[in-house]
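In the present case, backbone shapes were mapped to integers, as reproduced here:
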Amino acid sequence: MTSVAYMIKEAFNNLSRNALVVLGAILAVFISLTLTFGTLVFGEIVRVNTLQWAQDVRVIAFLQDDMTPETTAAMQNEIATWPQVADVFYVSKQDAFVEAQVLFSNDEAMLRVLDESPDLLPASIRVQPADPEDYDLIVIRLESTPGVQTVESAGDAIEAMIALRDGLQIMFWLLAVALGAAAVALIANTIHMAIYARREEIEIMRLVGASNAFIRTPFLIEGALEGLIGGALAVTFVVVAQQLAVDRLSELPEWINLTIHNDFILRQGALVLLFGLGAGLLGSSLSLAVHRTLRS
């Protein structure tokens, strides 16, 4: 217990002896992990909004005029059982007429056509995919369904949305890996400087019989503390910034949602803290491994 207490005390002494260097390392870790955690939070916001936008993406199956209510209901019930379908509902000719009047409210020529032929628009079944990537399979199945006249979907828009989602996810993870590596390198450099500043003291400790583990452990604890403190500051900063954004940007359009579930914040925040701790330990270990004074 005495040795453990001494090593912890030495770790805190190292922090106080090199306050400016340690502060620089903590700030560097804070910036790196803030950007890392920030990209994760931003990625979650993009994911949530992508799913929200996807809810408005529907495949429309226009029905033949000879479809009876019973046949239409049976078709709707069958489509609802497809695993690719999240929701399905029926739009009658009358509902389509009312919808068209709203859509073409600024087009007088189209409104005249609608007034002259109120039954011009066919009834339809609107299908919401469970996943935007499933829309093409739904289109194929609807086109082969008896009673369906034509099928329309925002295929290009859906593919663009999927490509945007996947591209942003890849970018976020690459950036997180790069920033994480930078945090490890910065901690390793800080520990290296601390070892160099105490090189004479370390040599004396080795001469009096101190083991490598006894000498190395305070530096490991120091690196872990730097990473943990930097991670805690990063999590706090990002959470506060996200909450301020939600409060201050309340007038954003309804289709932009900045709110994130607390379980995501807790889960990812805990991972960032663990990463800060692990980065500190890894950085310290790398510095100790390459420093000739403390090689095993």
User: Anything to note?
Assistant: The domain at 58-153 is CATH 3.30.70.3040 (Alpha-Beta Plaits). Strands lie at 59-63, 85-91, 124-129, 148-152. The CA atoms of residues 249 and 258 lie 9 Å apart. The first helix runs from residue 2 to 17.
